[in-house]
Amino acid sequence: MPWAVLLGLLAALLLLLLLTRRRTRRPGEPPLDRGSIPWLGHALEFGRDAASFLTRMKEKHGDIFTVLVGGRYVTVLLDPHSYDSVVWEARTKLDFHAYAIFLMERIFDVQLPHYSPSDEKARMKPTLLHRDLQALTEAMDTNLRTVLLGDATEAGDGWHEMGLLDFSYNFLLRAGYLTQYGVEALPRTPQSQAQDRAHSADVFHTFRQLDLLLPKLARGSLSVGDKDRVSRVKGHLWKLLSPTNLATRAHRSTWLESYLLHLQEMGVSEEMQARALVLQLWATQGNMGPATFWLLLFLLKQPEALAAVREELEGMLRSAEQPVSQMTAIPQKVLDSMPVLDSVLSESLRLTAAPFITREVVVDLALPLADGREFSLRRGDRLLLFPFLSPQKDPDIYTDPEKFQYDRFLNADGTEKKDFYKDGKRLKNYNMPWGAGLNQCLGRSYAINSIKQFMVLVLMHLDLELVSPEAEIPEFDLSRYGFGLMQPEHDVPIRYRVRP
Ligand code: HEM
């Protein structure tokens, strides 16, 4: 029997090799690079360091090419002038959701009957915009104060040390969780706020254990020990976020109410609802903390930039209608009038936001590029844009692209700079941390408001410094999707205290 299994496996492998090796480039298709390892193709190099691999491929083939990655053919487009042909293409041709559904099932064990991503999007979109956005922003302000200032006060006078990534991720995720999933009681009391702090800390610490294992989980390379850990951690999160536990929470966002109703209307079981709510915690809260980590780090490493942000904030607060001591929330007007902080955030995202923008090719189609060329794409392949390389790190667009230059997105008159050029032509998509087109991030206004609120609170109320100001900025690790983050043991130590 073992021999039969072995022979079967060998036969399957051989068939696989024959199938994947048969593909050749057809006229009109992008250059094809299958790499030297059958079936795997370039999977190892891609997984290790996508940015270096894609740079090498770009030098070899130009700004469009097809590579074999773990049995899939992926066409990579790196010309930002042509990105609109992809991001505005109809879903019936280039589908955003197929890969998201695959990740949802593989990583979060979520299977939804009669699931329609476009119905879900139509339903959820209004809960992140306009009046609902204002409600989210106001709640976020209060919750940031509860966790950030409350934790620091609870810990007592004097300096506290922790890692900068832990600091940023912890406070933003906890406040974001309370904002979207609700708080212990309304009106808040000192006791209910202490409970909010403890409960949200439990959610964060459990979530973070899963977050650290996600790259391995996505690649399917968990060890036996990791698998046990993942199922324990998921079990705890499902309990914490179960509809029954959430039912008693106060001040739940319209986002949560709408999402729960949507799941119930689909007939999703309570257990599956809890899994979907954990997935949503990751999707909505997984990026703000890491983005803020880099923003704070660049500011702490560049005193001139930090001084410019401080000066802008102090000017705004001086001209605000209310004195700072009486402010219970940062007015939206203040958040909207901080072009220096906006520029710092855009610059920090330019250097660190590295999402893969992927679409499934649903039908054979012709992809027109901005320079007049046209390429055939095959149904069943995947299309990938990687704006991190171009436009974001493109030396033709940005001088010294590796350098953090806090005023890069400011005009001489202090307004936002929006004109950037490549090959003498003005670019529409010159910085893409939020994606672009039909599937551009729906939470970006909420995320931008939250990050700015957090920065304003830190600047107003805390003294915060690097423990080793002379230490180098840590290596950017792109094996994690999204933002290149280090493992916790390489986090950047900081110390902070509530200003006396
Ligand atoms: C710094 C924080 C964030 C970053 C950098 C970020 C980035 C992105 C990117 C790049 C995409 C587009 C992916 C693609 O086109 O393939 C996206 C989509 C999306 N984001 Fe965000 N995001 C952030 C925060 C949030 C938050 C806070 C929410 C909600 C509360 C959110 C909700 C969404 C949704 C719903 C989509 C999918 C849109 C669709 O289905 O068309 N994001 N995000």
TrEMBL record:
Q: List, alphabetically, the CDD domains matched.
A: PGIS_CYP8A1
Name the coenzymes or cofactors required: heme
What species is this protein from?
Echinops telfairi
Q: What is its EC number?
A: 5.3.99.4
Q: State the name under which the record lists this protein.
A: Prostacyclin synthase
What Pfam families does this protein map onto?
p450
Q: What's this chain's function?
A: Catalyzes the biosynthesis and metabolism of eicosanoids. Catalyzes the isomerization of prostaglandin H2 to prostacyclin (= prostaglandin I2), a potent mediator of vasodilation and inhibitor of platelet aggregation. Additionally, displays dehydratase activity, toward hydroperoxyeicosatetraenoates (HPETEs), especially toward (15S)-hydroperoxy-(5Z,8Z,11Z,13E)-eicosatetraenoate (15(S)-HPETE).
- Primary enzyme class: isomerase
Report the leader peptide range: 1-24
Taxonomic superkingdom:
Eukaryota
User: Does the keyword section mention NADP?
Assistant: no
| Family named by the database record | Belongs to the cytochrome P450 family.
Its lineage opens with:
Eukaryota, Metazoa, Chordata, Craniata, Vertebrata
Annotated PANTHER family:
PROSTACYCLIN SYNTHASE, PTHR24306
The protein's annotated catalytic reaction(s) are:
a hydroperoxyeicosatetraenoate = an oxoeicosatetraenoate + H2O; prostaglandin H2 = prostaglandin I2
The protein's UniProt keywords, in alphabetical order, are:
Endoplasmic reticulum, Fatty acid biosynthesis, Fatty acid metabolism, Heme, Iron, Isomerase, Lipid biosynthesis, Lipid metabolism, Lyase, Membrane, Metal-binding, Prostaglandin biosynthesis, Prostaglandin metabolism, Signal, Transmembrane, Transmembrane helix
Q: Where in the cell is it found?
A: Endoplasmic reticulum membrane
Question: What topology does the record note for this protein and the membrane?
Answer: Single-pass membrane protein
